[in-house]
Queue: 2 jobs
Job 1
Amino acid sequence: MKIIIIGAGPAGLSCAYALSKKGVEVEIYEASEFVGGMSRSFDLWGQRVDLGPHRFFSKEKRINQFFTEILDGEYTAINRLTRIYYKNRFFQYPLKFTNVLFNLNPFTIIRILWDYILQRLNPIKNPVTFEAWVTNRFGKKLYEIFFKSYSEKLWGIPCSKIDADWAAQRIKTLSLIGAVISAIKGNAGNKHKTLVDEFSYPKYGTGLLYEKCAERIKKNGGAIHLNKPVKRVLVNESNIANGIELSDGGQAQADFVISTMPFTTLIKGLDRTPQNVKDAASQLYFRNTILVYLEIDGIDLFEDNWIYVHSPDVKHGRITNFRNWCPTLYGDKKTSIICLEFWAFEQDDIWSIADDELTQIAKEEIKKLDLIPTSMDVLNSKVIKIPRCYPVYETGYQEPLKILENYIDSIDKLVPIGRYGSFKYNNQDHSILMGLLAADNITDGQNVNLWEINTDTEYQEEGDVKDILNQ
Ligand SMILES: Cc1cc2nc3c(=O)[nH]c(=O)nc-3n(C[C@H](O)[C@H](O)[C@H](O)COP(=O)(O)OP(=O)(O)OC[C@H]3O[C@@H](n4cnc5c(N)ncnc54)[C@H](O)[C@@H]3O)c2cc1C
């Protein structure tokens, strides 16, 4: 049996690894010159960085086994500090009740509590939007302060048009009553660190996991072809996927095709796709990311791994300081690399402006936020644009997505997985799990429904950190 995998990101690589371990012939075709996809790492000005912050966490044993098996000890524990920057103040994230109280003026606090109580007494029935979901759980005022501006920067659409699915997947519920009780009792009884405080991280960047995985696949006899974009998947008259066509015109045959290329591109490229399916594909869209890296001449900047920048007066929404991850990233360098994230649609001006201009905006914004001492110069800059970074969960997106899922299910031997591969807002762990389970479905004849992964998962931050580090 020969299996072709499109894309060498976490989903494609984990799938290829699991298959190659069982002696199946696998060939990966990757469009870029790298492995790791959006989770790759790279050298920059003598240091090592990721594409924005990449924290790895999971409570799923299978995923953590993959992580430890591949890295074989080359990972470390990172103490996590992430905060929200809003109106010149820092708020711990995930939100802590006492910290919120300490940082806000009494009038705002009274308003927060009042709104919260009102909301609990009279919740929105069937909250289908992000705005309704968050307001129900936190009250209107907390929603406005901590969720509205950031989410609208990220998604580029009003919160009243973002589907509640995103909130349910990603936002840890804050129990105000629980927080008050633990504030009164103190933290004395809690000796465990949780995944909130600490996470495992490959010593030379998150991409190390995928570089090492690629080596293992090759050792197991698998092939990885870089710089080989796939144009379309070939499907025969009996509706069975049997190969791929590359952008350079070449073709390759296979018994199975696993795709992690953008789901909508995959669908549109198939022969005989019905018009209603094409129409459904046109309703789904992605949000792009622009990363601006700056090398700062100094080492004592802010202490967070990353900061969520809620302030509406700047365009970027998150800023990472790689100096605060682990020393193996920066070695003996005496500078810090920070990375500002901007989000855009293709038609937005900011997506097409020149790198110099973007760098200038980034420099002005860090000055405005006063996060970096003015005595420190910016020595270097680099801009990276990532198209189709976030599948947009606009309200009602499930309907066209279901049409695409049903259509793909009608084609035998074609399995889409991954973040944009299956239009799921995956983290690395979800994509890895999809890859491993897709392999099981083929080799062990299992029938796990891959569409279900990540739809109902609870936000797992409360997991005990020993789950990851001691397995
Ligand atoms: C700024 C940022 C921050 C993030 N932070 C975190 C975090 O903290 N924690 C976390 O777990 N995750 C994080 N993620 C998400 C994580 O990067 C992704 O979930 C993960 O990389 C998805 O893996 P994937 O294999 O599904 O897709 P991808 O990583 O996108 O890989 C897909 C691969 O397919 C290739 N490809 C696409 N089209 C074709 C084609 N036509 N032919 C051949 N190859 C093709 C691409 O080049 C790519 O290599 C973050 C992502 C970003 C961008």
Note: The pocket of flavin-adenine dinucleotide is lined by residues 6-12, 29-32, 37-39, 51-56, 229-230, 260-261, 289, 341, 386, 389, 418-421, 426-429, 431 (CB under 6 Å).
Job 2
Amino acid sequence: MSQSDFHTTAPAATALEAPGIDWWTMLTDPAYLESPYAELKRIRDLGAVHHDAVSGVYFVLGHNEFRQMATAPEMGRDTRLWANGWNAPESRVRDPLGYELFREFQPQMTNMNPPDHRRMREVYEKAFSPARLAGFLPMIQAESERLLDAVPAGVPVDFMSAFANPLARAVSRKLFHIPPEMGDLLGQWVEALSLLGNVIMTPDQKREAQAALRAFKAYLRDAIAARGDAPGEGFVGLALAALADGTMDEEETLTNLVTLISGGTATATLLGNGLLALLRHPRAFGQLRADRGLIRPAIEEMLRYEPGGSFILRVAIRDYACGGMLIPAGSLAIGLVGAINRDPIRFEDPDVFDITRQPNAHLVFGAGPHICLGKALVRMTAEVAFASLLDRYGRIELAGPPVWWTHRSDQHGLHSLPLRLASAQ
Ligand code: HEM
């Protein structure tokens, strides 16, 4: 991946730059993508915040620095403010395809600052209330059991394609009333769109993402129209009520739904990364088998130790001082979760996988006004999935080397996880 694929900003004269870090080569290196922690530790030891003179991006590796930045009013999430970035006026000429793609993806809560962010987020917060989520529990349990019923015992099986990915997709489809026959197409759209979080995209990937976004929105527009005057309950119903009363316009309604439906599939990374962490730490796995009360702290430790999301973005609305650096207005800052979640300032023995860790203030779901809306759903789904696995299988073993994604820097997930699953005897 060359630097020309990346939208650069002018280097900020105010910042100190740590020499010798070729950021984008590192962030796209397959060995780093498989296990970034040693490299991130080395860089965090040099400083909690770094500036890359080539791309103009600020990288935040310290836990305290990231938490403060993520909640600071000077730092927002509106990428239109990123000088020279995706939605900057200059990009319209330099990269018309990218400009148009990000313009079409822009109108949603993820990419908004106050007050628009709150206006949109409030619509969906109701849908993620604990009472509403509890109503989905039987559905998640049924989906989990249905998928495991089809997994053959005692022979090698890929956990990601047999269970983790289909479970995350099935839950997402059910929440948003998408019929099963749309499953394959939906999977393709989500895959093409997932690269939008990667910051770096090739022209072909941009073209694919744009086609997927347009097809996804067209499908949702038709599905909404088919509901007529009866929006109904749940996530889609709330979105439609907000459309009807003018809280959101049609583009905002559709783009938020695209992200909510796509975001749902991220749960699969937790199931894969988490189970692999257990398999690589048999003592911890044994502890969990012996005491099911540890399932919640174990899931938190999976999220901390092997986080599925690697980048959390902010764009400076105004100049912001962070970790001894000045992040000038209009700059992009990226929190590197693999470093933040293992910062020794916050975590004792950060490289130890400890399923009894308390407290566990990992930041895999971000912090501040944009903190992940789906986090309670993620935790509930993971709890159901790991309980089902432990109930059914007394033996869960690796049946081959796991294969990590190496095609994206913003996510740390498994392409495949070959396992052999069997009951205890
Ligand atoms: C393991 C799975 C997941 C991880 C690691 C994750 C992580 C994140 C992160 C880091 C953010 C940005 C937070 C920030 O900027 O401070 C975010 C935002 C968001 N997530 Fe998740 N997420 C996951 C699953 C989900 C699911 C299942 C859904 C929905 C069903 C979801 C919906 C959202 C939405 C809508 C936002 C934007 C919130 C806003 O801007 O106000 N996520 N997520």
Note: The two ends are 49 Å apart (CA to CA).
